[in-house]
């Protein structure tokens, strides 16, 4: 599916413009403190012409055999900001809040259909699980959005946690 660059896109957002739109697909989760699981997910990146994207993600646990939803899972929302530093290259800031009581500031770089970020600051509420850090990699691969999320939490070292392949939704 062809992607058209919006005419009102802020120039600084060029290095991450490929992320705009709604993405849906499935992924896998694993961590040393939990059982492996399969999930469905929807990511939405929108813009209004200013130098940021609004981001919204929701996921649900699925039965690996039937693909049916078992229960609701994570929700996160935030703002992705990019400052273009060269042709198609940008410094990125990503502020995320989670339904689990976690707030994160991520920093990194975008270039050539790839976004790589690491946590710069993390805040947690009294009831949130302790998270010490993370690394996220997003990539445009064959027109799909692939991502991997490594997490350090619950006194465990940084390790793979989530990975998924999402397709751009039509319309």
CATH class: Mainly Beta
Report helical residue fraction: under 10%
**Biggest sheet character:** 10 strands, antiparallel, barrel
Q: How many β-strands, per DSSP? A: 10
Give, in spatial order, the strands making up the sheet with the most strands: 1-2-3-4-5-6-7-8-9-10
Known CATH architecture: Beta Barrel
Strand content: over 45%
The CATH homologous superfamily is called: Calycin beta-barrel core domain
What is the count of helical runs?
A: 0
Computed structural class: mainly beta
Give the oligomeric state: single chain
Q: What is the count of distinct domains?
A: 1
Average pLDDT score: 95
Radius of gyration in whole Å, from Cα?
Answer: 16 Å
Q: Determine the N-to-C terminus distance.
A: 10 Å
CATH fold label? Lipocalin
**Shape verdict:** globular
Binding site for heme b: 33, 129, 161
Keywords: Heme, Iron, Isomerase, Metal-binding
Protein name: Peroxynitrite isomerase
Enzyme class: isomerase
């Amino acid at each position: 599916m062809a992607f058209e660059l919006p005419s009102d896109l802020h120039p600084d957002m060029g290095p991450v413009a490929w992320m705009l739109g709604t993405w849906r697909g499935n992924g896998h989760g694993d961590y040393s403190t939990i059982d492996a699981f399969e999930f469905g997910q929807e990511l939405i990146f929108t813009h209004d012409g200013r130098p940021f994207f609004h981001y919204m993600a929701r996921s649900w646990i699925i039965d690996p055999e039937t693909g049916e939803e078992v229960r609701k899972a994570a929700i996160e929302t935030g703002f992705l900001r990019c400052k273009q530093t060269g042709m198609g290259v940008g410094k990125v800031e990503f502020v995320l809040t989670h339904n689990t009581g976690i707030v994160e500031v991520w920093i990194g770089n975008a270039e050539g259909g790839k976004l790589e970020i690491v946590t710069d600051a993390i805040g947690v509420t009294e009831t949130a699980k302790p998270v010490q850090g993370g690394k996220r990699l997003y990539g445009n691969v064959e027109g799909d959005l692939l991502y991997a999320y490594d997490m350090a939490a619950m006194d465990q070292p940084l390790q793979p946690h989530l990975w998924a392949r999402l397709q751009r939704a039509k319309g």
